Amino acid sequence: MTPNNPLESIYFITFPEDTVLSKDAFQIDTTIPLPVQKKDNEAPGQFNPNEITQEQILAGILTVLAYDKHNEQTQYYRSLITKVRPNIKKELSETAILKAKNEDYELAEEIFLALQGIDPEDKAITLNMAIFFDQRADNYRRSGLYDDADAYDDEALSYYTDALLAEPAIPDAFFNAGFFYLKKHDFIKAKDTFETYIALTCDIKDDELGPNGVYKKERAQEIVNNIKSQNMDDVRFSSAYELISNGDEEKGLDKLRSFLQKNSHVWNAWFLLGWGLRKLGRYTDGIGAFEKALELGGNEISDTYNELAICYLETENFSKAKEALNKALSIDPENTKIISNLGYLALKEGNISEAQRYFEVVLEFDPDDKIAQIELSKLEH
Taking a C-beta distance cutoff of 8 angstroms, is the pair 301, 331 a contact? Predict the structure, then answer.
């Protein structure tokens, strides 16, 4: 079992003179204790200093660099591990990214923290950490763990903010931060960061950018144009989202209505209006707003159909709810929120076995989904 405090998994050992740490006979400073990672199968009292391996020492150093930022020997440990393993940053970066892609988030986070401990000034590491926390927040939100998702979004924002200050500037920091701000419906900052990305890449020839770079520049410009054409950088729009998100729906809806008086063509505003109405329990009004959003261009977004379905569910129009959820699922087939709502629909229709199957499918996609776990537990009892 992994201890709650990772630092409890290491010993600090003073080694005898002439101890070497690598095949190149790199000699250590024997006046400074080295952290040694305990073996997984090591019982209390069985520690044998004569059986310590180089890998245990390197693992111990990584643990200290990740979790003990104020250790007075940090600089020595950094120099030691980079001399013994010159390619350590590249190796760990590749491993962390792979673990994140495979949704092994706990291990990926440990590796990213160790990387930052090795070189806290490397803004490329900072950017990778921002992207990681951003993705992990999305994963928690899909699993219904909204408080955890918000906490990881806060972490992501902190790292994005740091990465955006890099000198020289890192264009990809602005590109990825732009999508983060889009997710948070902060269209003013999203526009600013995408415009900065475009400015940083505008003088680079397409053959130097490559196909992916050209795509990103065109995508950034498309998003900026869309924000401008729909006036989503209007402060009233951003304020409305923030108010509704923070539970002050009535004030948020007032801001939105003011915005919609001159921007009635903006589907995102109608979606936001529907969301606020749905949160207030005004489901019939919410249906009207979401249907208007669909009419104006929100019909390519699964969330529009999903939110509309929730309103239909609450007004017991089950056939319309099913129709909306099936459309949402056709756009985003692996979205566990939609599949869970199909489970709730089946429950409301009294089809227990079908509901159970939907919640089981959710857990196939995401074994940690709390909503599906709770609903299945209820059905089993």
Answer: yes
